[in-house]
Amino acid sequence: MLFPNADLERIRTGEVDLAFRRWKRPMHVAGGRQRTRMGVVEFVSVSPVSCDTLTEEDARRAGTTLEDLLAFLSRKDGEVYRIEMRYGGDDERVALRAKRPGKRETDALVAKLADMDRRSRRGPWTREHLELIEARPGELAETIAASIGREKKPFKADIRRLKELGLTESLPVGYRLSPRGRAVLRALRSS
Q: Which of 25, 86, 168, 174 is most exposed by smallest CB count within 10 Å?
């Protein structure tokens, strides 16, 4: 689910704790989580609802007016869902990126990358991608991908896998290595 920056801040403070979306099938489930720019949003409940049962209070909790909410929901086809949510804390990857791994953790990360390389249909890629990001911070993903003959979408999917390990971080444009990523790349180069 996409949230405007203003709504993310209001979710963080608890001012907004509902959202309504029209979907052909539920896109979130109770207990699910979504990482956003401000942190994690947790989904408390997700249930179908009829537009004629929505109230001004529902709209207020969603950060809007009933008139604007109904207009928003009328733009798409599908069933209307009521999503109760709350701020779930900071994105754990932020702290992970800053954490410099010790020898044991570095060895485990290097082994994980080797496993990712082994399972890849196109062969080893993790070190190459880390080196590309180190050499070209803030450059468009599409440009970097094209430089190695890859499409943007699969390239970005690979970078997200590295990001899950805390090795890269997204910038407004492009990426850069995190301190953790720099430590792992040093270990890869010395092995």
A: 25
